[in-house]
Write a structure and sequence with these properties.
The protein starts with 8 loop residues before the first strand and ends in a 21-residue tail after the last helix. Strand 1 and strand 2 form a beta hairpin. Helix 4 packs across helix 6, helix 4 packs antiparallel against helix 9 and helix 6 crosses helix 9. By secondary structure, it is α+β, with helices and mostly antiparallel strands. The strands form 9 sheets. The chain has a 4-stranded antiparallel β-sheet. A 4-stranded mixed β-sheet has the order 5-9-6-12, with no helix packed on it. A 4-stranded antiparallel β-sheet has the order 18-25-22-23.
């Protein structure tokens, strides 16, 4: 750290924090403001956007900021104290995921006038410009975690009120808040750049897949009009065909498999095990089954090189069966497609499913609509373009190599984000616990163009 410590400290008993600057106080949150539990509402009171007030929930708090990608509105009279005010700190108080308990964001101008749900809390205080920093420190995370047990997975208003906070004098609080606003803004800018890089890499990855399976690897190959809107021009020696001519059969599991769930046994492959990022199976959240005897078990059984494609959610997510999932079974939400002898590379065919041309067909955008569920016939009728056997293998190997390269670059970017976020938390924690003295800090001067001098 380039910042100096305070000259004098005194003993503090705050868990992992055992000392604070000698002139600071320790205050419980209940003496600094009010902790409020959110609004209870019924499903009947949920309405469309524009017909009620937005209820802020856990999904509206992302990366310590408010987000509005997943909103719920209710038509209900909201008590005045449950109307969000600028400066309020919104916290996740109850959640199925313990890791989300305590995540928070400060209410801004845009969110003023909204309300918040019963699984959320708000802390309302005149000290919030400073406390919002404390709430994003390791000290707050430590105290939040101390209330979570095997049976209790919530942060009550009583818990919150009992939190003990090191509190500097007002002038110092403002100095620390200004310092952290300035320094964390720089860190946030670097994080945003890494996030943008990841987004661009994903777009480039998708473009590589789509180009390779519709145009091939030879940039000098003569092209012809495919006659299919989604495919456009394709190499003139490739065959435009329907997917049904490349599969021996297309099927899916049926309902009722929940009766066969078990802690051990064969893998039961669900949509959660598919992705549009790769043709590799996702082996998190694995469900096992002891399959039924007879034709149903045989029909839904996975064999090597089968394609598994989602048909009811995240349409077109896919994987190619490998040794990890062979002899597993598919649910009714996954189509099991067995390539014919026309296909020498199931990997190539899997990448075709990931391409933009197939995605557009699956979503029905060519007809001006959006499908939310596919039939097996939709899978069979997909338009594809079939290269020679050698080219199938070459294309699959090329995409494999490129995706490995993109994955490495994205992994490095994510590591940078993790390091920056750790740096951000460490800096906030050091400032609000008095480990560094920023009283003499001055914001850099700027010239008339807004650029630091």
């Amino acid at each position: 750290m380039k910042y100096q410590a305070y000259e004098e400290y005194k003993v503090a008993d705050l868990g992992w924090l055992n000392q604070i600057p000698s002139h600071w106080e320790i205050k419980r949150l209940k003496y600094l403001g009010d902790a409020l539990i959110g609004l209870t509402y019924s499903p009947d009171e949920v309405v469309d956007e524009g017909e009620g007030v937005l209820v802020l929930r856990s999904s509206n708090v992302q990366n310590k900021q408010l987000a509005y990608d997943d909103n719920v509105y209710v038509n209900k009279k909201v008590p005045l104290k449950l109307v969000a005010q600028k400066g309020d700190i919104l916290l996740c108080a109850r959640n199925g995921s313990r890791a989300l308990i305590g995540k928070n964001a400060q209410i801004d101008d845009h969110a003023t006038g909204m309300t918040f749900g019963a699984f959320m809390s708000i802390f309302r205080s005149p000290y919030n410009d400073y406390l919002s920093k404390v709430f994003n420190s390791s000290l707050f995370e430590s105290q939040s975690g101390s209330f979570l047990t095997a049976t209790i997975n919530q942060l009550t208003t009583g818990n919150l009120n009992s939190f003990e906070i090191p509190l500097p004098p007002e002038v110092e609080r403002k100095k620390i808040a200004n310092f952290l606003d300035h320094e964390t803004a720089k860190i946030d800018t670097l994080i945003e750049k890494q996030q943008l890089l990841i987004k661009l890499l994903k777009e480039k990855r998708q473009a590589v897949i789509s180009h390779a399976v519709t145009k091939g690897l030879n940039p000098n190959a003569p092209l012809r009009d495919s006659g299919v809107e989604w495919l456009g021009e394709v190499p003139e020696h490739w065959v435009v065909t329907r997917a049904k001519f490349l599969f021996d059969f297309v099927t899916s599991g049926s309902r009722g498999w929940a009766d066969y769930y078990s802690d051990e046994g064969a893998l039961f492959f669900r949509i959660a095990n598919l992705t549009r990022d790769t043709i590799e199976p996702k082996l998190e959240s694995i469900q096992h089954v002891n399959p039924p005897l007879g034709s149903e078990g045989v029909r839904a059984k996975i064999k090597n090189d089968d394609l598994l494609i989602s048909i009811t959610a995240d349409l077109g997510s896919v994987c190619v069966a490998n040794a990890d999932i062979v002899d597993g079974y598919v649910s009714q939400h996954v189509s099991l497609c067995r390539p014919s002898q026309e296909v020498v590379s199931s990997q190539w065919l899997g990448y075709c499913v990931l391409s933009d041309s197939v995605k557009d067909q699956l979503l029905g955008s060519g007809y001006g609509g959006t499908k939310i569920q596919l039939s097996l016939e939709d899978i069979r009728e997909l338009w594809l373009v079939q290269p020679s056997n050698d080219e199938q293998v070459e294309i699959a190997n090329f995409i494999d190599f490129e995706l490995t390269r993109f994955s490495s670059l994205m992994q490095l970017a994510n590591q940078q984000i993790d390091l920056l976020q750790e740096r951000r938390t460490a800096l906030i924690s050091a400032a609000v616990t008095g480990k560094i003295d920023v009283r003499n800090w001055q914001a850099p001067n700027k010239d008339n163009k807004g650029i630091p001098a």
